[in-house]
Amino acid sequence: MEYAGKTAVVTGAGSGIGRALALELARRGTRVAASDVNKAELDRTVELAGGDQVRPYQLDVADRDAFLAHADDVIRDFGQVNLVVNNAGVAVAATVQEMSFDDLDWLLGINLMGVITGSKAFLPHLIASGDGHLVNISSVFGLVGVPTQSAYCTAKFGVRGFTESLRQEMLIGGQPVTVHCVHPGGVKTNIVRNARLHGDALEEEDPAGRFDRLARTTPAKAATTILRGVDKNAARILVGPDAYVFAGVPRLLGAGYEGIVGRLGRRAEQRAARRT
Question: Rounded CA gap, 175 and 15, in Å?
């Protein structure tokens, strides 16, 4: 992809992967319509970018009407869109029994419906560009199911299914849009700090610090990996060495991985109970 002079849309650009993408795209000469629900963090992204390559838009991606209006605003301000990255996301850590319907609606509204709305809102403009790219951020939790992450897995499996279906539709229809599904592993972002925690996750001491120690990939590295995948027209983009492990487990073990994870989780609970 030739980035200079093109227009990119990035949601969740106030921190993490979204901010890193906005900065990297701006460095490559791309005009960026950067959005986030947190205006202060979004303004910081614009400040870090310098110049006038990044334009901020305060947006809650779960608000469908606002997202559709955002697409109109971007076209009015930039005239075209060549690349869209639906990145905004949140997390809930809870068992199905502990999780409230409010938690579920909150997460699905952002992580799944936000991606679907963003894709539909900008798809006509990507087609009109003649060489568009749509990047939807799933997760390694869109490849395997994980205990206490049922809401997150529901959204990320949904993003994967939606994105893979849309890619096929674009190919069948001969449309000039390449669709990419991204599966990041552990990336050092604020997602755990901003998560809704319940049960054991709520009682854990410094869960965000623990996540940071486990996460091996920086947002900047994730951004360059994603754009390299865009350049290669890759259908699936894996981010981080742990992403390759997660992708390989269901291929190797099939549904058998579920029993292994369950047994390991049960032993971990038993050890924790003995310590208390």
Answer: 32
